[in-house]
Design a protein that fits this description.
Alpha-Beta Plaits
């Protein structure tokens, strides 16, 4: 009975995410259908044991990394797919199939050099934005790394550039995809713990 309920919940998550981001035909999106590699992390509810890590490496074909620390428990993916959304949805489906409880998805970490390449800027220009020597300031704080080699979540950086008037298309649809995915995952947990609250939210906001 429990397994049937979990399969039903996984199906609800996938249906909700697909509804939020229906796939576009190539001629509509203008996207190239060649497979690309996307990096992201899935934050889990519970710690990953050594046995869990071995099972992940055996079952998943991707290059995955397991991280446990003060910020939580994570599985890091480098997955090939036609889009970022496809990569994350497929990864989440496999994580849940293996019995893990995903809480959220975080975008990949990028360096100053990565940011410069993605925004078509020089490394020096990005460094000046980071240090507040150029632009409006308030550049996102690094999420990892160290003083000499800071790392940022790409979604945070992309949001900052969009706030400064950059073309949103430059940053694909990752921000919207992550917001929908994490909202659905949070709703999944809330539906299990406080189903009455979920019904209230749906009644007040749907329409």
């Amino acid at each position: 009975m429990l397994m049937a309920r979990e399969r039903h919940q996984r199906k609800q998550v996938e249906q909700a995410l697909r509804f939020a981001h229906p796939p576009l035909r190539p001629e509509e999106s203008g996207a190239v259908t060649d497979m690309q590699t996307y990096a992201f992390r899935v934050r889990l509810r519970d710690a990953v044991t050594d046995a869990d890590a071995d099972r992940l490496h055996e079952v998943l074909e991707d290059e995955v990394g397991v991280e446990d620390g003060p910020r939580g428990h994570f599985i890091g993916f480098e997955r090939q797919a036609e889009s970022f959304l496809d990569a994350v949805l497929n990864g989440l489906a496999e994580v849940m199939e293996l019995g893990f409880e995903p809480l959220a998805v975080e975008d990949e970490l990028v360096s100053i050099s990565d940011i410069a390449e993605r925004t078509d800027r020089s490394r020096q220009s990005v460094s000046m934005l980071v240090n507040g020597q150029r632009g409006p300031g308030n550049f996102p704080r690094p999420a990892a790394g160290n003083v000499r080699s800071p790392l940022w979540h790409w979604a945070d950086v992309a949001a900052w550039f969009e706030d400064q008037g950059a073309d949103p298309l430059t940053f694909e649809d990752r921000l919207q995809a992550l917001a929908s995915i994490n909202g659905t995952l949070a709703n999944r947990v809330l539906a299990r713990l406080r189903p009455a609250d979920v019904r209230r939210i749906q009644e007040r906001l749907t329409g």
